[in-house]
């Protein structure tokens, strides 16, 4: 008789069972249980087979029995599908972690930070969520390739997103800033300043923030009858802003205004412009997006759109709490308006 906990009994009528997972994976019931529970006495081949069977059958462990196995309760996962060097160097993530931790700690919930790039790390993170090691999840900085929205909807795991998700935006709760409006505001400011050749350094095309801010910029350029071909893309990092600005100067040497989709990328642009002997704002006016501290310390101080990340993070935590405490809170979306902060760069 197996000494493994009966993690799938009782199961809802029609739901996949642990025995079915084991049979499909071609392993014993005890091995399947250890693989699902994160046990160490499982070969990599068996773990992969069990993970595949879990996905194909849509298996979900019984939560009451599962808690006896894992001893993990009272925690929420903050999911950041980014490389760790990015997470620990970008003030956006530091602010998010601080606020989410503060709000959830008031309800005696522990935050577990899950960081992973694509590939094996992402699969390990998804396995953690599938195995219900956390009561819920808050996802931030997701990309088009990520399957977190798909997985969380499939699992029925309480969740909220910071940033509009690519898929299932009507099935999950999320908060965001009005990135389209922010992109328009940045372009209009440069137009009002008298800039005649306005470019943009857009964010990644696989993130909704990058797409929406570029769309707002294009709308404002079209409204003013200005060309919208001076576009370079970055990755929301200083280095990405540097590379994009070099591209813009090479392709459009007459540029006299640049709307940049993040403050970190704007810092990179300021470095390139200074090295090229282009004075800011006399020769080229520059705007950023975020206002998380670095903008006011740049040289010159950066005109930017304030992204209310503290309010967004707090609201995302509250949306998750509503699901955890109410059990069946309907999905909600909350959109904050960005605020223009005028400084010397424009």
Automatic annotation (TrEMBL):
Keywords: DNA-binding, Transcription, Transcription regulation. One of its GO terms (molecular function) is transcription cis-regulatory region binding. Residues 16-70 form the HTH lacI-type domain. InterPro entries: HTH_LacI, LacI/GalR-like_sensor, Lambda_DNA-bd_dom_sf, Peripla_BP_I. Pfam families: LacI, Peripla_BP_3. PROSITE patterns: HTH_LACI_1 (PS00356), HTH_LACI_2 (PS50932). This is LacI family transcriptional regulator. It comes from Aeromicrobium terrae. The lineage of its organism: Bacteria, Bacillati, Actinomycetota, Actinomycetes, Propionibacteriales.
